[in-house]
Write a structure and sequence with these properties.
The protein is α+β, with helices and mostly antiparallel strands and 92 residues long. 42% of the residues lie in helices and 20% in strands. It has a three-stranded mixed β-sheet, with helices on one face. It is flat.
Length: 92
């Protein structure tokens, strides 16, 4: 994983945003890696607690502005898919 770190210790899963140069802002890849690690923690029957944290001075600045600018060129269907992708992270 490039933007999210995952490790476990004593029945705790630590999911760490690791994009400090972008203030841990969310883009498609970060959302995808977060979904993957949350599902990994969910499937591990030894895990009882999940801690979400971040490297750097900022937890998460929200959406990556460069990524949002690229979305303006997308079709309706592409933007709907991107929004659904983010919704699935929030549901997870």
């Amino acid at each position: 994983m490039q933007f999210v770190q995952y490790h476990t210790q004593e029945r705790i899963a630590y999911i760490t945003l690791n994009r400090p140069e972008k203030r841990n802002a969310l883009n498609y890849e970060v959302v995808n890696e977060l979904k993957t690690t949350f599902l990994q923690a969910e499937e591990d029957k030894q895990i009882k607690v999940v801690v979400l944290k971040a490297n750097g001075n900022v937890f998460c600045a929200g959406a990556d502005l460069e990524y949002l600018q690229r979305l303006q060129k997308n079709t309706y269907e592409e933007n709907l898919e991107d929004s659904t992708h983010l919704m699935k992270l929030f549901k997870t």
